[in-house]
Amino acid sequence: MPANKGFYLLKSKLTKVTQQEILAAARAVVKQAPLFRPNMPNGQSFNYSMTNCDDLG
């Protein structure tokens, strides 16, 4: 079922337990590599936060 342009919402494809495991894994990554908000060359910050969890970014 199309939810919006560019992606589909697939309900019930992941169990609640699987979703919780993915969230726990993501939180573990963010604990090791905290979120930050990058800046553009003109100094304006992006509208999102991100993490850099690899040597290459």
Helix-residue proportion: 25-40%
How big a fraction of the residues is strand?
A: 5-15%
Instruction: Report the radius of gyration as a whole number of Å.
Output: 16 Å
The structure class reads: alpha+beta
Q: Which outline best applies?
A: flat
From N to C, what is the helix and strand string?
EEH
The strand line-up of the biggest sheet is 1-2
Give a short account of the largest sheet.
2 strands, antiparallel
N-to-C terminal Cα separation, in Å? 34 Å
List the total number of helices. 1
Poorly predicted sequence stretches spanning 5 or more consecutive residues: none
Mean pLDDT: 85
Find the count of extended strands (DSSP E, 2+ residues): 2
In short:
The chain has 57 residues and is α+β, with helices and mostly antiparallel strands.
Describe the protein's architecture and organization.
This protein is an alpha+beta fold and 57 residues long. It has a domain at 2-32. Helices cover 30% and strands 9% of the residues. The chain has a two-stranded antiparallel ribbon with strand order 1-2.
